[in-house]
Amino acid sequence: MKELGSGQFGVVQLGKWRSQHKVAIKTIREGAMSEEDFIEEAKIMT
User: Fold this and answer.
1) Where is the binding site for ATP, in residues?
2) Which residues are annotated as a binding site?
């Protein structure tokens, strides 16, 4: 996967879904945010 960027909370990489759709894959560093912040971030992405 190709890294697109990184920041305070983790890394964003370029990936493929079902071998054809380009998607951004966001990984969060362990301990980088609270559980509540994680849930709020997940709500934004859905």
Assistant:
1) 26
2) 26
Q: 2: Cβ–Cβ under 8 A, 6 or more apart, which residues?
A: 13, 14
Distance CA 12, CA 33 (A): 16
pTM of this prediction?
0.69
In the chain, where are the structural domains located? 2-45
Mean per-residue pLDDT pooled into runs of 10, the chain (46 residues): 91 96 93 90 85
- Quickly name the fold that domain 2-45 has: Phosphorylase Kinase; domain 1 (3.30.200)
φ/ψ of 34, rounded to 5, equals: -75, 165
Q: Give me 2's structure tokens.
A: 């190709």
- For residues 18 and 37, give the distance between their C-alpha atoms in angstroms, rounded to a whole number: 29
